[in-house]
Design a protein that fits this description.
Rossmann fold, four-stranded antiparallel beta sheet, 11 helices, alpha/beta, 2 domains
Length: 300
């Protein structure tokens, strides 16, 4: 009888541990591995995202930032590793079981991902209808409330084609928060915006953190945005975590990968590759020019 009780006590202890972790860190990934073909994208990533804080994930293009976000929300599944939302492991769940988990998330996509054929009202209402059925009784009030939060209530009857890039991003943000999510994911929220419009998005990220008391994860390579909104920062490079810390710790870092990224400097390897290709092209062009001159001289 003592033997049969042991697994139960172990399971209960593990459940308590997950519950405690989930309360403090509502999103966690453990030893996450993902490859596309032979190309590794995420290499043993382990991260915990603190409740009510904004974590910014930095890194060059192609380092795995957006892929990580898609694993967190269940749009991709890892080759190895685990993803937790609260006390629940979510990386192996079916689409049907993921639905209530996803309701806890708001996701601002890089390209806004609005439906061009329907109005702003219907775009923002889309998650309500998806999760609560057609025409929730308070749909109009909820749509107007979130549009007011992003300063665009007067666009409710317009179509996305009539909006500027910054306005489209803000409408997409209103749609992302209409279900009052506990966790906000932002994928390159300021990409394609001028500095003033980008700062409007930064201010909205800060505002929504307090309005929703949400845990926020921001993927970006916009350093001005990163240092404005971050409580903590993570640097990815070649699919691995090279640093975690506060914004000030990042500013003070002597790690060459981090320091070079913050200065916006290409690596010696990248510069060497560029110079080598340029040198080879110049030599090739000179050789071709000499050949043509010789031919022309012969023809004379």
């Amino acid at each position: 009888m003592g033997t049969s009780a042991e697994p139960s006590s172990v399971d209960e202890a593990r459940a308590r541990e997950l519950s405690a972790d989930g309360a403090e860190f509502p999103v966690r990934v453990e030893r996450l591995v993902k490859s596309f073909g032979r190309q590794p994208v995420l290499r043993e990533i382990t991260l915990r995202f603190a409740r009510g804080k904004t974590t910014v994930i930095l890194g060059p293009s192609g380092c795995g930032k957006s892929v990580l976000l898609k694993h967190i929300v269940g749009l991709m599944h890892p080759d190895k590793g685990r993803v937790y939302c609260g006390a629940s492991r979510v990386d192996g769940l079916t689409e049907r079981k993921l639905m209530p988990i996803r309701r806890q998330f708001g996701f601002l996509f890089q390209n806004s991902a609005l439906f061009d054929s329907i109005s702003v009202r219907d775009n923002v209402a889309f998650p309500l209808r998806e999760f609560e059925g057609e025409n929730p009784y308070d749909e109009e009030a909820r749509v107007r409330r979130v549009l007011a939060l992003v300063g665009l209530e007067d666009t409710i009857d317009k179509f996305p084609s009539a909006l500027s890039g910054g306005q489209r991003k803000r409408v997409a943000l209103a749609r992302a928060i209409v279900l009052a999510p506990k966790i906000m994911l932002y994928d390159e929220p300021t990409t394609g915006l001028d500095p003033i419009r980008a700062d409007v998005i930064n201010e909205l990220i800060l505002k929504l953190k307090h309005e929703l008391n949400a845990t926020s994860i921001v993927v970006t390579h916009d350093l001005a945005s990163a240092f404005k909104v971050a409580d903590c920062m993570v640097m990815l490079h070649d699919g691995a975590v090279v640093m975690q810390g506060t914004p000030q710790e990042f500013r003070d870092s002597t790690d060459p990968v981090v320091a070079r990224f913050l200065r916006g400097e290409a690596s010696e390897e990248e510069l060497h590759a560029i110079r080598q290709v340029r040198s080879e092209n110049v030599q090739s062009a000179r050789g071709a020019s000499g050949t043509m001159q010789n031919k022309n001289g012969t023809q004379r």
